[in-house]
Specification:
163 residues, mainly beta, rod-shaped
Length: 163
């Protein structure tokens, strides 16, 4: 029949779980029956939204500085919004996934001591993780030292021209 009224079927597309996790759905035109007009908004950043589908919620976990001092942070899947997949890397190459890395390296505590016999080893920068900075000092003469390797502890007694 001409002029017959059309029944209004209000459809709230948000009730159909159309958005992704950690997103808020808003269907502004429920009463008008307009389909495909819902908006998914990321809870972590309201400026990230999409119409008629889940939003891509970028979450760069490195923005909160989860790694320790002197470490670099990498979040390879930040555009996917995944949690706990960042990595922390120390200057010496030690890597930890999802947590700060333990970077302290005392080169003097190596399985094979880096200094020669009758030498003391001191690594002044274990907390800063700087490598190749340990110092070997001769026990017989503390003025004889070397950095990043054994010291030469034998003195050239003829160097002072005693004869």
């Amino acid at each position: 029949a001409i002029g017959a009224a059309v029944a209004a079927c209000e459809v709230d597309e948000c009730t159909m779980s159309v958005c992704g996790p950690d997103q808020t759905c808003n269907d502004p035109n429920v009463a008008s029956n307009m389909l495909h007009d819902y908006v998914c908004t990321c809870n972590s950043d309201a400026s990230l939204k999409a119409v008629d589908g889940p939003a891509t919620c970028s979450k760069d976990e490195c923005q909160s500085n989860p790694c320790g001092a002197g470490q670099t942070c990498d979040d390879p899947t930040k555009s996917l919004g995944s949690i706990g997949d960042f990595s922390c890397t120390c200057a010496n190459g030690v890597v930890s996934m999802g947590a700060p890395a333990t970077c302290e390296v005392d080169e003097c505590a190596a399985k094979t001591p880096p200094c020669g016999a009758d030498q003391t080893c001191v690594d002044p920068n274990t907390a800063s993780n700087k490598l190749h900075d340990f110092e070997c000092t001769c026990k017989s003469d503390a003025s004889l030292k070397a950095i990043d390797g054994p010291a030469t502890c034998e003195k050239d007694e003829c160097a002072s021209n005693p004869c």
